[in-house]
Known about the structure:
Layout: H1 4-9, E1 15-18, H2 23-35, E2 43-45, H3 55-61, E3 67-70, H4 78-83, H5 85-106, E4 110-114, H6 143-163, E5 167-172, E6 174-176, H7 189-202, E7 207-211, E8 217-222, H8 223-236, E9 243-245, E10 250-252, H9 253-263, E11 269-273, H10 288-294, H11 302-321
Helix pairs in contact: 2-8, 3-5, 5-6, 7-9, 7-11
Amino acid sequence: MDNPIAESFWDGKRILITGGSGFLGSHLVKYLIEKRHLCSGQIVTTSSAKDLRCLENCMEITRGIDIIAHLAANVGGIGYNQKNPGALFFDNLQMGLNMIEAAREAEIKKLVQVGTVCSYPKFAPIPFKEDSLWDGYPEETNAPYGIAKKALLAMAQAYRQQYSMNIIYLLPVNLYGPGDNFNPESSHVIPALIRKFVDAVQASRTDVTVWGTGKVTREFLYVEDAAEAIVLAIEKYNKAEPVNLGSGKEITISALAELIGKLVGFKGQIFWDTSRPDGQPRRCLDTTRALREFGFKATTPLMQGLQETVSWYNDKYASATA
């Protein structure tokens, strides 16, 4: 449903979305066009071709911009994190440093810095509350990425204090949905499992091996819900405190694997490679702050979101093989 009050917020404003051609960024662009009726001239996006590790590039793209949503990131799943800890730390910290400083120089009205659930301590109390963010060290395989992102929260709050910048910080849980990264070298758990099970069905294999024990839990947020949350935060939230974005529901990886297997028609056996890491023992967010501060509540059930994601991947897979 159209929202005239929300649409009026965007009158005359231009938004820069770093990583706007990526997974979350493309859905954010789509939401702004379809739900807030922004025209193409109001939305500026960047791709990997524009290296945000270079401050001059960041200063160039912020000219004439009112709002920035900094989504660009070097990110991947647990295997990718193990292989690239240095690059994950440097790239994400450097891009964030540059974008915040460029926003200051350009006198940007508002900047959204997107963080990560990986910043939370390994054994944070369940559900994760934003106030627990600094109460311990992150899970080891996620630590370089999580700490780099968490340092940007400190920077955002420091710039708010010294320069009166309106920087807000959002903490999304694991995202999934159509357009996700299905590269087995760098994908997160849901796209990795979808590809693994679809490949098994296509090859008529009777077993699939999955990393870890299957006992750990994760929470997932459908990407279209995440895009809505970012827009609502831009329109309504103006405080220094970080805000969790999630569904507030957790599921074990073993249950998730069984669910995805059934959705794609896999009838074989699942084996667990316990020599591979599990990552953080549990993940589940307290999402009350997002609801209270800007009215966000996730609405896409996991089963529905998985069906949409599987359908998208099957269509892509079918077209690729055709």
